[in-house]
Amino acid sequence: MSKKPAKKQKQQTPDDVMSSLTQEQIHEYYEAFCMYDHDGSGTIDTSELAIIMTSLGQNITEPELERLVHEVDADGSGTIDFPEFVSLMVNHVNKPVTKEEIKSAFMVFDLEKRGYITSDEL
Questions:
Q1: Please, are residues 119 and 63 in contact by the beta-carbon 8 Å criterion?
Q2: What is the rounded (10 degree) CA torsion for 57, 83, 70, 16?
Q3: Is the pLDDT of residue 81 over 60?
Q4: What residues does 80 pair with on adjacent strands?
Q5: What pLDDT does residue 95 have?
Q6: Is the CB of residue 24 less than 8 Å from the CB of residue 65?
Q7: How much is the pLDDT for 110?
Q8: For residues 79 and 91, is the Cβ–Cβ distance under 8 A?
C-alpha cells in the first residue's frame, strides 16, 4: 500500500484572508498589530516580528524570520503591513496542526515504538 504525498495547501493572499474574517477578528488583529508596531511606522520589521514570535512562545531564528517575512510580504517592501500581518497570523501562527505533525511529535517520545508514551519517555 503506497502513501500519497500530503497535498500542500495554497496559502491565501492577504486580501483573501482579510475578506474571510469578521470585523471583530480584524479589530483584534489590528490591536495586536498596533501593540507590536513599536515605531508607529504602520509596518512590522523582522525585529518587531521576533518579539511577536517570542511572545507567542516560538523561538525563531533570523533566517526563519526572514523567510516568514518573504512569504507574506505581498508588496515586496521587506516589512509586514497590516493585511500581511493578518495573513501571517492566520496562515502560519494560528495554523491547525496536521495529523502528520502530531504523529511526528508522538514518534519523538515513543522511543521504543510501542504505540504509547510512558512517563519515563517524557
A1: no
A2: 110
A3: yes
A4: 44
A5: 58
A6: no
A7: 78
A8: no
Q: Any long-range contacts for 31-39 (C-beta under 8 Å, 24+ apart)?
A: 32/89, 33/82, 33/85, 33/86
Q: What's the one-letter identity of residue 6?
A: A
pTM for the full model? 0.64
Confidence of residue 91 (pLDDT cuts 50, 70, 90): confident
All three cell numbers of 13: 493572499
pLDDT at 98 over 50: yes
Residue 60: the pLDDT is 85
Distance CA 70, CA 79 (A): 9
Residue among 94, 99, 97, 69 nearest 84 (CA): 69
Domains observed in the chain: 14-96 (1.10.238.10)
What letter represents residue 37's amino acid? D
Q: Residue for cell digits 526563519?
A: 64
